[in-house]
């Protein structure tokens, strides 16, 4: 549980493309500060888990593995953002591994998992990457099949069982936002 002298934490997890960032963005308009776990991947490849590139041209940081997150750096920032002030309603921690790390879950007064079908998550992720200039759809699908999907099944999907609130990622962001703010009000 959250310590009373700090801003309460809402942890939002789920697979890539589930809608976590969109929900967090919507909650930021409701007085929540947002901290993205994806901003805390290790900067040095040797500090995290690496995998061989599918084209065999070297190794890359495995963004589908929780040990590629610099958890120490993240936790320092989370504690800093929990300082009272500026009329903050709460701190939203969102990321694929937000419900994986016990250090986050134990601090959260509300844990939320966004359950979105795999095909929808893949389509959303591909649309996002393609619109940002990453134009190799075949490589994206190979990466999903070889790395992302197995990592999701091993590290992310099991966290749904321990979430306080499981939301349907096919619902509108407005519906998801209302569900989270309602549940947050009930626990604060």
UniProtKB/TrEMBL annotation:
Coiled coil: none annotated. Keywords: Kinase, Transferase. The keyword Protein transport does not apply. InterPro entries: P-loop_NTPase, PRK/URK. It comes from the Bacteria. Residues 90-171 form the Phosphoribulokinase/uridine kinase domain. One of its GO terms (molecular function) is kinase activity. Pfam families: PRK (PF00485). This is Uridine kinase. It comes from Streptomyces thermocoprophilus.
């Amino acid at each position: 549980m959250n310590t009373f002298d700090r801003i309460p934490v809402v942890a939002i997890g789920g697979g890539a493309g589930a809608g976590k960032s969109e929900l967090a963005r919507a909650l930021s308009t409701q007085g929540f500060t947002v901290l993205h776990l994806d901003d805390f991947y290790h900067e040095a490849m040797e500090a995290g888990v690496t995998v061989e590139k599918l084209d065999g041209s070297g190794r890359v940081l495995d963004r589908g593995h929780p040990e590629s997150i610099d958890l120490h750096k993240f936790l320092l920032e989370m504690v800093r953002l929990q300082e009272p002030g500026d009329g903050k309603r709460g701190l939203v921690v969102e990321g694929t591994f937000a419900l994986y790390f016990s250090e986050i879950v134990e601090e959260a007064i509300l844990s939320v998992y966004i359950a979105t079908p795999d095909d929808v998550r893949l389509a959303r992720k591909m649309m996002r990457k393609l619109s940002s200039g990453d134009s190799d759809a075949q490589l994206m699908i190979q990466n999903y099949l070889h790395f992302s999907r197995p990592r999701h099944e091993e590290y992310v999907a099991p966290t749904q069982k321990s979430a306080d609130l499981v939301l349907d990622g096919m619902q509108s962001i407005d519906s998801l936002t209302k569900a989270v703010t309602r549940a947050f009000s009930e626990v604060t």
